[in-house]
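Database export, one record per block. Field names are fixed; values are copied verbatim from the stored entry.
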Amino acid sequence: MARMIWLNWSGGGNLPPSLGIARVLTARGHHVSFAGRPEMVPRVERAGFRAIELSRAYEQAERYPANKWLPKAASFLTSPAVAEQIRELLAAENPDLVIVDHMCPVALLEARRFGRPSIAVCHTSVWRCLPMWRKFFAMLIGLRTEAGFDAIPSDLESLWMVQDLVIATTLKSLDEAPGVLGNADRLRHVGPVLESERHAAHVELPWNDARALPLVLISFSTAPEQGSIRKFQNAIDALASLPVRSVATVGDSIDPAALRPADNVAIFATADHEELMRRADIVLTHGGHGTLMRALKHGLPVVVIPGMGGDQAVNAAAAEAWGIGRALAADAGQDDVRTAVLEVLESRKYRDRAMELASRLQGCDGASAAVAQIEQLLVTSGMWKGARAVEWTGLGSKSSAAAETR
């Protein structure tokens, strides 16, 4: 058994796949604890894992400029207070391996300084988003210096690629773009990890004839940072006059009661997207990687209205380039939404192309492939010598090779 600390950014697209990988690690006999901001704790505990609150997450938030980005998020990701608490945590916990979400600069730096094997995990594309990632981290570190703190490295080579491995939970064949990245031989594509959190429950749709009309799933970000009543309401109003049924799920992003309902749109805080996508005809989404991959798994076309997540505009453009749907502007109006949904529903080409790409996801187990890579690192670094350690070759050679060649 190996003991691991996962330094986590609990975004809507980050925590579920992290939990999915941790679930397989646990089944293999390892112990995984998650450490992150206060909002992470109940979600991780609900999933059955130990959660450690980084209580200093927002201690220095007031020093960050409020008019440029999210001060609390910037504080958690880059502040000296968080770095110090992570340093103390790693010393106290003394894990065999440190796993870090790719979004967290100070956590990445502290993981490398700790001196044990470390892995960065990216829950979206690397190569397609490479220019965006470079700009994003430059922006984050710029905010840190504006807050009056010393500069830290902002280049990916000093944050991601100094780790022993970088795992990308997406298909390699869907992450193809030109670019240069130092130590790129450490990057492993393992395939999507489409974990559902436990609050994603079955919901009863309110229409007796629910299957008589096309079903549109409205799935924008569930994270509070990206919550937008206007965006949800705009989508509801756009679909209200169409011959469709629709289900909107809002997560923790907004209060469902803040939305004006429509007769053909059911609004839920949470719901089981896996179940709904088996019944849906199209997904109206913000372009988060997890939602996009789940839609592809079910062969569903999409209409993407990107939110503030850095990869969402890139994913929107990719969806249109792949021919699986339409990409709209972030501030698209009702007429644009209505027209795009109708076009995608009425043209078979979008569904056919989505079904074609869905075949690439068949048999792909991103969580098991990620665990194979993690266990291989544990063995080669000498941090895992138990009786089950020799089994990693049987797990890894099959799962990771399948993901790498897709």
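Remark 1: The chain has two domains: 3-192+364-404, 215-361.
Remark 2: Residues 3-192+364-404 form a domain with the Rossmann fold fold (CATH 3.40.50.2000).
End of record.
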